[in-house]
Design a protein that fits this description.
Elements (H helix, E strand, L loop, with lengths): L1 E7 L2 E6 H14 L3 H12 L4 E3 L5 H22 L6 H17 L5
Parallel strand pairs: 1-3
Antiparallel strand pairs: 1-2
Helix pairs in contact: 1-2, 1-3, 3-4
Amino acid sequence: MAALIVLEPGVDWTSTGGLFDWTLEFLMRRVPHREVVDHLREIVDNNLGSFWLDDVPARYRAEILTQLRQELLPAAERELPDTDQKSAVLGRLRELADAAGRTGTSG
């Protein structure tokens, strides 16, 4: 199943369902605000397959973008298993980190 993260209109990222879930779990561990965690947990638990940054209260958006931009790749390098697909997966996550850097809300 394909999944979608929309950071702002025209700035989005698609991935497999498993990588999408891992990415939202990453955010749940690093943006410890109950509203954010509950929203992301609902998406993962119900296999909704899309996350729109605009659905998160504005006061948390910059923090989410910072985590995606600065911490996503280092966490993936540490946490994801060393398989023959890891390089490709890291490439996909790099695309998301780059998109977070291009997002106007990022500061």
